[in-house]
Amino acid sequence: MASEEALASLGVGGASAAAHALSLPADAYGNDPRLEVMWAMKAYNHAEVYFNLISSVDPKFLKLTKLDDKIYSSFRETFKELDIKLLKPDDLKSDEAKEVWRPFCNQFEGLIEDFNYGTLLRLDCEKDYTEENTIFATRTQFFAVEIARNREGYNNVVFLSDSSKS
Description:
Elements: H1 2-23, H2 33-56, H3 68-78, H4 89-93, H5 95-106, E1 118-122, E2 134-138, H6 139-151, H7 156-161
Antiparallel strand pairs: 1-2
């Protein structure tokens, strides 16, 4: 993987410095392109690990956080009609959606580690992460949607399509 090669090229000291840099508050930086690349690599690695996880473990048994039950119940109370099988960018990014997502996410500040960090989220849950099928979301949005997809059976397609289990 390109991200693994990039991390390996940093060496132990560079990787340690990158990890430290990513732990600092965002206001400690301007628009440093190196930091943006590190964040993109971190988000990509998270997406890759998660997709491998739902490909190899029955998603209905996954517990993503200690707060899965609270996140799920609050999510479904707030977003009763949201089609999580096939999200549209406006479901997360329109002005109207942001007005609903903001208080939803903020209720988990201090409860979900890095609750507002950038994470990659698949739009169509039956497909892998690709440029066309991926949107940038907060970690809280990721957890809310993916916990619901796991509980409601939408991620079963990914798990069942893994040919290594046959």
